[in-house]
Amino acid sequence: MANPRVVPKFKTEKEEADWWYRNRQKIAEDLEQAAQKGELKPLDKATLRSRLASRVITIRLPEEDLELAREQAVRKGLPYQTYIKSLLHEALRQTR
C-alpha cells in the first residue's frame, strides 16, 4: 500500500481489538485501494501450504494450567486449543 496504516503496540488484547474495530472502515478502504492499484501480492501455493500446515501432537499439561487456559479462552471467545496454540506461537516468536 502506498500509505500503509501504522499499527501501534498494544498493552492488552482488548486494547488491540478495540483499535482494529475503530479503524476497520479505513483499513478496508486502504485494502480496496491497494487491490485496485495492483499492490497486493498473491500467495503462492507453497507459502499458503506452509501457513495452513499443522501437525497433530499430544502434550501433557498440568491440570491447573489446562483449566486456566480454558477459563481465559472462554473470556476471549476462543476454543481452548486454539487459545493455547496462539499463546505458544506468540511465545516462540518472541524468543527467536
Return the average pLDDT rounded to an integer: 86
Spans of at least 5 consecutive residues with low confidence:
none
**In the CATH scheme, what's the topology name of the largest domain?**
Arc Repressor Mutant
Number of strands: 0
The helix-and-strand class reads: mainly alpha
Number of domains: 2
* Largest sheet, strands/sense/barrel: none
Element-by-element helix/strand order = HHHHH
Shape: extended
Distance between the termini: 28 Å
User: What oligomeric state is this?
Assistant: single chain
State the helical fraction. Answer: 55-70%
The CATH class of the largest domain is Mainly Alpha
Characterization of this structure:
By secondary structure, this protein is an all-alpha fold. The protein is built from five helices and no strands. The protein is extended and about 50 Å long.
Helix and strand layout, with pairings?
Blueprint: H1 13-22, H2 24-37, H3 45-52, H4 63-76, H5 80-94
Helix pairs in contact: 4-5
List keywords for this structure.
Arc Repressor Mutant; mainly alpha; 96 residues
Summarize the structure.
The protein has 96 residues and is mainly alpha-helical. It has 5 helices and no strands. 64% of the residues lie in helices and 0% in strands.
